[in-house]
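# nightly structure sweep
# worker-07 picked up a monomer target from the shared queue
# config: single-sequence mode, recycle default, output format = structure tokens
# input follows
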Amino acid sequence: MSRVRIVGGQWRSRLLEVTDAQGLRPTPDRVRETLFNWLGQTLAGEHCLDLFAGSGILGFEAASRGAESVVLVERNPRAVAALHNAAKTLQASQVEIVCGDAVRFAQNAQRKFDGVFLDPPYKQGWIERIQPWLDSLLKPDGWIYVESEATVAKLGSWQAVKQGRAGTVNFHLMRRSQE
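# output follows
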């Protein structure tokens, strides 16, 4: 098992265990620092959704930076167990962990979020499968963070407003188009 470090907020420098699961690649520290610089250092009062939680680092980072609630969706039982352990260790009562399929969760979600993290396993078409449900998941002024193996300029009514690349990771902050 490896570990990943929370880079900011109340749990800054805390380490989380990362289970060894196929396709799981935690977002690198430098990429998370850039993302949270784009979003502002605090997410106070925001409600966030991490649809492909994996290690949970994006969701725990959001909670560390003041998000009022964070939902982590993950289907791998070993990864879910690691998420529960991390939430217990951090006493992260604002974090809800859902063991299930991201697309099914998106289709059936009854609430809207301020922000959604999309960091699915690469080369499996997950972003395209989630895209039809994004508008119903997000508040009108919401944001989406997308991490992928290729550049993503647009997702339905969402367009990249900031983007970067670190090694093989392409990352994007998207907002709803005003067209």
